[in-house]
Q: What sequence folds into this?
């Protein structure tokens, strides 16, 4: 039996749909809970609505590369499993690597090798599933303890807690600066142009005092940076 | 309302929903194995699991330690179920927190972060669904040569924009991590794709230098 008839079969579609529906329910549940709590502790409805608008608009563009990843992995892993993995937990970069490990542990070097059978597919699924659970396991068993400790830090010195969180973010940010700064080229040009656009939009928001400009600043700067990437590569600048 | 505090309720609901998803993750391959009677040989399976765990257990621990303080409890439960942290959820949630003018690790911040993660997850799920249904007409468009540079440069575009804003606001915190990462990239051959592993390392370096700056009085507080 060709494994793709399993990988694109009805059973897998049903399973994938169940998982995705559960995650949708969970998201809605948390959304409702936070919204209610937000109102009851005095966050204005305007602020909550702005958060919804900003997030909904921002999420559109970074979701498109995930669709591109779907196009890339679905010929090998089938559409339903790829759909489920990319909608839930996984990330573009993780899925390919994990699928390859699943195949190579069965002695298959490439995902397109003719030796990729139903058994290899099943192995890939198991390996990918076990690989992805750890963030979830940690949340279930360690999050409460970890957060209680963070709260102690916050109570002891709220200024330091705030600085620490910002420093953590700068650590993350710096990782994406290293390569462009050192190698230059298109990435550096894009990095600098979207930074410049962001600063410009933020400045406009400041002098006009319009909150909605600030809400869309990040999305618009990112999209403009991507447009510059097309422009620069067509100009042959790099 | 029940007698549980809000935080206790968050942990309870978070743990229950995360556990359900955890079980479902295994239900998927198990059902396929049983229905079609395809079981991978145990030794090969364990080898694969060993390999994948060697890579992803350390990364998950690091991600958990780095992102939890930024997001707070309820958003963390959600983010480890819905995924796509670095390229989507974290930048989105942090931007919303700044715009709403809430300080990290406060309950207000946790609420804003959770709403942001929930809404962006729903949007992503919707877009992937549209992408799946319209896969055939969309494929040539999305993989077109013209658009290629735009999507390959999405991370520099995203982090350039975030960086420009944050560095201007708090340049003192940015100096050390950026200096260290530039030196790393100059002197070490770092292959692409290891960014995930570098994030916690740089986070640690950044926090350590921030602590020093704070103790010496160079940084007093975060100004919004």
A:
């Amino acid at each position: 039996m060709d494994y793709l008839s399993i990988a694109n079969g009805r059973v897998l579609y049903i399973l994938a749909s169940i998982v995705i529906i559960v995650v949708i329910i969970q998201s809605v549940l948390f959304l409702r809970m936070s919204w209610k709590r937000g109102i009851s502790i005095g966050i204005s409805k305007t602020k909550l609505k702005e958060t919804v608008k900003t997030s909904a608009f921002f999420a559109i563009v970074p979701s498109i590369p995930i669709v591109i990843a779907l196009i890339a992995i679905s010929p090998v892993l089938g559409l339903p499993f790829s759909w489920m993995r990319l909608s839930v937990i996984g990330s573009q970069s993780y899925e390919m690597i994990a699928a390859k490990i699943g195949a190579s542990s069965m002695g298959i070097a490439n995902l397109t090798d003719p030796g990729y059978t139903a058994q290899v597919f099943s192995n890939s699924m198991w390996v990918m599933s076990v690989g992805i659970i750890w963030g979830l396991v940690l949340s279930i068993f360690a999050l409460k303890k970890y957060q209680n400790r963070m709260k102690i830090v916050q109570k002891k010195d709220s200024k330091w807690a705030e600085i620490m969180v910002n420093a953590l973010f700068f650590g993350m940010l710096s990782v994406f600066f290293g390569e462009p700064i050192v190698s230059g080229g298109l990435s550096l040009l894009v990095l600098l142009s979207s930074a410049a656009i962001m600063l410009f939009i933020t400045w406009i928001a400041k002098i006009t005092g319009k909150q909605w400009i600030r809400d869309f600043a990040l999305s618009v700067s990112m999209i403009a940076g991507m447009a510059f990437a097309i422009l620069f590569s067509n100009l042959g600048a790099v | 309302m029940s007698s549980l505090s809000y935080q206790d309720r968050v942990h309870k609901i978070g743990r229950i929903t995360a556990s359900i998803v955890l079980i479902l993750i295994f239900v998927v391959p198990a059902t396929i194995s049983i229905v079609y009677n395809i079981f991978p040989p145990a030794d090969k399976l364990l080898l694969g699991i060993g390999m994948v765990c060697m890579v992803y257990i350390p990364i998950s621990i690091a991600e958990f330690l780095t992102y939890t303080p930024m997001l707070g409890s309820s958003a963390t439960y959600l983010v480890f179920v819905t995924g796509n942290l670095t390229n989507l959820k974290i930048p989105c949630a942090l931007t919303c927190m700044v715009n709403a003018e809430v300080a990290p690790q406060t309950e207000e911040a946790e609420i804003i972060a959770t709403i942001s993660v929930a809404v962006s997850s729903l949007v992503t799920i919707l877009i992937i669904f549209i992408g799946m249904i319209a896969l055939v007409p969309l494929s040539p468009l999305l993989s077109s040569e013209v658009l290629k540079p735009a999507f390959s440069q999405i991370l520099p575009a995203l982090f350039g924009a975030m960086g420009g804003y944050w560095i201007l606001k708090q340049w003192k915190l940015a100096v050390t991590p950026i200096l260290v990462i530039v030196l790393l990239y100059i002197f070490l051959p770092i292959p692409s794709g290891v960014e995930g592993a570098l994030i916690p390392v740089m986070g640690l370096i950044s926090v350590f230098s921030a602590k020093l700056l704070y103790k010496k009085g160079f940084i007093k507080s975060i100004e919004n």
Remarks:
- Chain B has a mean pLDDT of 90.
- Chain B touches chain A through 159 residues (CB under 8 Å).
- The radius of gyration of chain B is 21 Å.
- The longest helix of chain B spans residues 6-36.
